[in-house]
Amino acid sequence: MTKPAITEPFENLHDQILDAVGEEGVVAAPADMARYLAEERGRFVGRAAFVVRPASTAEVAEVVKLCAAAGVGVVPQGGNTSLVGGSIPFEEGDEIVLSLERMTRIRELDADNFTITVEAGVILQQVQEAAAAADRLFPLSLGAEGSCRIGGNIASNAGGVQVLRYGNMRDLVLGLEVVLPDGRIWDGLRALRKDNTGYDLKQLFVGSEGTLGVVTAAVLKLYARPREVVTAFVAVPDPAAALALLGRLRAASGESVTSFELIPRLILEFALRHIEGCRDPLSAPQPWYLLVELFGGREDGGLREALEEALAAAYEDGTVLDAALAESETQRRAFWQLRENLTEAQKFEGGSIKHDVSVPVSAVPAFLKEAEAKCRELVPGCRPVPFGHLGDGNIHFNVSQPEGGGAAEREAFLAGWDAMNRAVHDIVHRHRGSISAEHGIGRLKLAENARFKSPVELDLMRAVKQALDPHGIMNRGKVL
Ligand code: FAD
Ligand code: 2HG
Ligand code: ZN
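Above: inputs. Below: predicted complex with zinc ion.
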């Protein structure tokens, strides 16, 4: 560890917090703080008075109480994989980052109740593994699952690749423990499927992006572990055909479709070009692909046959152009490796302007046509690569810069970020969609959110913020 550099206005608070959490709980040297202050793509780089890493709920409460008394803002942080800058402090350096990374205990797994109680700092993949060891499934699944943490998943109401079947994080939370902005602890760790004793307070904190309190622990729902998993890489002529196939598969499989991910040819090529070990699952290039996965409850449940039959019928009438079914777990992993590396692959193709949007599933084909045309009109030569969770209407409408440009072209392209966002979001709005389907608002989408939310809705949101955090301690300047 290099020498801490606490500036004068924070010396007192630093010493008080050091007393509360001990040496291991405070990071203050600039070099050691760096990883807490920059996000995934380096789009936001902030400053902080220092970073605090409490080891228990009581310590979190003490830290928040001290910050509230000193009027110093708190930025909660989990795995720091947010794509909207929500976990990064602002540039003024007058906030602390409160990392939950030392709160990693699985407090209880109740297999009979199909629940697991975990602290906020547990990594998502570790929750999945603990559930599997007890012959259960924790279904939240996303590309960052090896590094994102449960508190972050809850605070951003994460979605991912199995929402179609199991819902998003909001649907998987039964109870919460939260440190409120004044330092009090709310123990709402109930493990009940039914509880109509007033307002559903836990849902206020799900998706609040750290602006209402610090989630310290949660009771999460578990499911039966699937006994039959069938995975296919399917080529279709266009998104309308993909939609038709989704309807058929849902019906033919008795609602067993768990993932239904859309991938256009161009971004598949990015992955083949840049990600080691990626191979095209099909023999000839096709315009659009789907990664389809079905979960069933019985080993011999006939899901594979149902999928094969449905795909064969769809091939006959031209809805499907080609398909490969995974013959082994290795092949299944290879299909998912392609999907999970799309964000990474895009980084090698220069600047990318992102839109994490949702529209009604039935409106996706029309939305895609309109948004692609608009982007090409705004930036001739730009390369839209819309991919993602078609099964629940959530498309990552990402646009790569025109081919072959260098750093200057990248800068020029990214300078058009806001204009392109506005144009695409206007189209989303016309389809009564959302401008942030699963990544949240953070600091990235503040202005766009304010543009589309009605004054009534914004008033309600402000009233909630005011009621829970009247002094504006928690993650100030985010979401609202
Ligand atoms: P952080 O980034 O640390 O924080 C996210 C927000 O929650 C911040 O506002 C932060 O202040 C707040 N927060 C964190 N912990 C707490 C807490 N304990 N109490 C209160 N507030 C807290 N998202 C999806 O929804 N679906 C995807 O498919 C998906 N795929 C991704 C793939 C990649 C490669 C990457 C890099 C990101 C992806 N994300 C996805 C985005 C991201 O939302 C998720 O990775 C994850 O939910 C964030 O968790 P985290 O622990 O990293 O949270
Ligand atoms: C995914 O679904 C993530 O892979 C990231 O939500 C999407 O790169 C993105 O914009
Ligand atoms: Zn996603």
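The first strand starts at residue 26 and ends at 27.
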